[in-house]
Amino acid sequence: MVEHLTAVQPGPGNPPSQRFLGQLRRETRRRILGLGRLRTYGPGDPIARQGEVGDIVYLLLRGHAKISAATEEGRSVLLAIRGSGDLLGVLELLRPHTWQHNVVSVDAVQAVAIGAERLRRFVERDSETALAVSGYLARLLRESEQRFIEAATHSARQRLSRVLSDLADQYGRVEGGRVRIDVDLTQGELASLIAASEPTVHRELGFLRRRGIVEPGYRRIVVLDLPALRRVAVPGTPAVAPVQPAVTTRRAASRAVPAGSATVPAEAATIAPSTRNRR
To answer: Would you say residue 135 lies in a domain?
Structure first.
C-alpha cells in the first residue's frame, strides 16, 4: 500500500495544477495509487498499443512517455510527450474504448496501472477526483487548440521555438546555466510536433544554433539561451542577437529500472519532479 507521497514539484511554465496528480490532495493521491499496481518499463518499451482494448489507465510516477499514432500509410506521428504526474488513458477512463495511440517509454518509467472501470467507479464517488479529470481534459483540449492556432498563424521557426521552450520548461535539466531537454527526440519527431517537414526542422535548428540559442545533438537538444528562445517563439519580436555558447557539462548516466510489475511500495510511489529547472 502507498503510505507516503510527495507533492508534484512545479517547474517553470508547469505548475502542479497542470498535471493530473498535482491537482489532488496527498490523501486522495494515496487512495488512487492504492487502486493499482506498480509497473516499470525500460527505454523503448511499449506501455499501450494503438487498437488494443483500453481497460487499463496509467499514472506516471517517474520518467517520460511518447504518445504517437500510426497513419494509414504506416507512418508514426508523434503527438505529445508525457511525464511524471500525467494520466495516460483519460479517454479510456470516460468510457470503454480502444487505445487511439501508441504509448512508448522514453527512459526508465514507473507507472501505476489501474483498471479503467475501477478508477471510473472511484471518480463517480469522489468529487475532487472528478474535477481533476475535468481539469486535466481541459488542459489537453487547450494544448490541442493552441497547436491548431499556431499551425495557421505562426512560422515553422516560431512553432519550433515554442515547442523547444515548452519542453525545456517541463522536462529540462539545468547544467551549468544551460538547459538540457531530457527527452530523446529525433528531428522527424520534432517535425511531427510542429506540423512541418524534417528538412524544415533541420534548417530552423541550424538558424537557432548559429545564433547561440540551442545546441542540437544526436537525439538531444541543449538550450543555451532560454529567454532568447522564448522571444523567437513570440510573433513580431525583433531579431535575436547572437550569444556565445557555454561549455557542455556531461550528465551522469542514470540507472535503468528493470521491467516488471509489483504492488506499489511506499518509496516507489514518490512522484518524481518533472523538471529540475527553476526560474
So the answer is: yes
Distance CA 83, CA 74 (A): 26
The H-or-E segment that residue 144 falls in is helix 127-153
Q: Are residues 206 and 92 in the same domain?
A: no
In a structure prediction context, what are the per-residue pLDDT tens digits for the chain, which is 279 residues long?
Answer: 343 333 444 444 444 556 898 889 999 999 999 999 999 999 999 999 988 887 899 999 999 999 999 888 888 899 999 998 999 988 777 776 788 889 999 999 999 999 988 999 999 999 999 999 988 888 888 888 888 888 888 999 999 999 999 999 888 888 888 999 888 889 999 999 999 999 999 999 999 999 999 999 887 899 999 999 999 998 655 444 444 433 444 443 333 334 444 555 444 444 454 444 444
Beta strands 56-62 and 109-115 are antiparallel
Task: Please tell me the total count of domains within the chain.
Answer: 2
Helix (H) or strand (E) holding 236: none
The phi, psi pair for 16, rounded to 5°, reads: -55, -30
Q: The C-alpha cell of 178 is what?
A: 544551460
User: Residue 222 is part of which domain span?
Assistant: 156-233
Distance, CA of 49 to CA of 262 (rounded, Å): 21
